[in-house]
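W.,

You were right to be curious about this one. When I first looked at the sequence I had no strong expectations either way, so I just let the prediction run and decided to look at it fresh. Below is the sequence, 121 residues in total, followed by the output.
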Amino acid sequence: EVQLQASGGGLVQPGEDLKLSCKASGLPFDNYAMGWVRQAPGKELEGIGCVLSDGDSWAVDSVKDRTTVSRDNFKNMVYLRMNVLKPDDTAIYFCVAVCRKYTGRYEYDYTGQGTLVTVSS
């Protein structure tokens, strides 16, 4: 069973940075692209970024200037770092596995329990 457990959410002040972690299990972690998506209140799920098995990563245009997705293949961990948070970044953040771009869409095969990030003063 694939398990993806995100952590690190909470209340963040506008302008501060965010680092989330995800522990993955039940899958051949080294072989899979891993990433993050988020869902803001009342909005659709939005892809954020993806890190390939070799460490190369990409992020969607809306956040790529302030976002880094990384991984540690020894620990089966995936990380999201997002700088200069804004209230619009308030969302539940989910870790995903087998992420990819397909015809302009962000897709993935597995997701897990998310972590809530609230950006507010």
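Here's what jumped out at me. The two ends are 39 Å apart (CA to CA). And, maybe more interesting for your project: The CA atoms of residues 34 and 97 lie 5 Å apart.

Coffee later to discuss?

I.
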